[in-house]
Amino acid sequence: MTQQDRTAVQYHKMTETPIPRLILSLAAPTILSMLITSIYNLADTFFVGRISTSASGAVGVVSSLMAIIQALGFMLGHGSGTIISRRLGSQDTHAATRFASTSFFTALAFGVVLAVVGLATLPDFMMLLGSTDTILPHASAYARPILLAAPLMISSLVMNNILRYEGKANLAMVGLVTGGLLNIALDPLFMFALGLGTAGAGIATALSQTISFGILLYMFLQGKTVSQFRLSAVTREPREFLQILAGGAPSFGRQGLNSIGGMLLHIAARSYGDAAVAGMSIVSRIFMFILSVAIGVGQGLQPVASLIFRAASTALRSSGLVMVAIAERSIVPSALTATLPCVSGTCLTQTIAFITSVLLTSAAHR
Description:
The chain is 81% helix and 0% strand. The chain is built from 13 helices and no strands.
């Protein structure tokens, strides 16, 4: 199957599948991925907690570092993903490749900067994140391998989000779930069998995330996606780069505040000792496990909403109905409310057709 055929098949799937079923098909793999991620975070806490209370506290301190990595990855992944989904809605695959390439290589660059700065200031960095003097050796040992893998981890988040926004949540799930299960299996191996302690937990996380990166990258290199990664395709337009940052700003703000909130909680808790910091770590992991389902459903809706927006806009422009929409504003005859389609059987194509008919009828009634 050629790249053009794959694009056509994916576009047909995203536009002809009933919307509730489409959202569910995208949300279910994402929910599973989020649950597996939460489970391996709990597994990290469980295994490290067997070493000491200070080691448990280190997991909480480093979770703020993980939130920084996620903030950068989500900013670039969601920022480019929404644009890619809209571009695919108008069947502009070249633009999709351009934005995908820009976000991927930018993620690698951001990761390198974070790794260099973090490793150069590691003790001070861990104290800034809320470590105590007794937690510091464990936090530094745990964070060092994670910082080394930061470029790959940020890039993995970008690839995961691009796959979801293309409607390929199953492929994204494979990479994340594989990494999560490997992390759970490698934790006791490196920590206890090889006697590496807290550093072993960091190595297990870094290694599993590196393998996850390789799996996700393989999917792009093998042409399983519509958008591709090419260094030559990276945008030279500052405006397009700013579009990615602006689209990802809400995700960056959310995850950035999560990191800052965790840091402030650990700083407040450390005056009560290592046990208080460890307690905050455990509670936050349980809380994220509960939120996984809600986050998964929301992430299943995002690519559908982006695609509907672009496909509907393209259809309206091509049919000359934009001026009608502008003229009519929000004026829709009340008689039309009785003709609203049943959501349960409606696909994207039918939704666009309905929007078009509403605008035409509204113009006729004016």
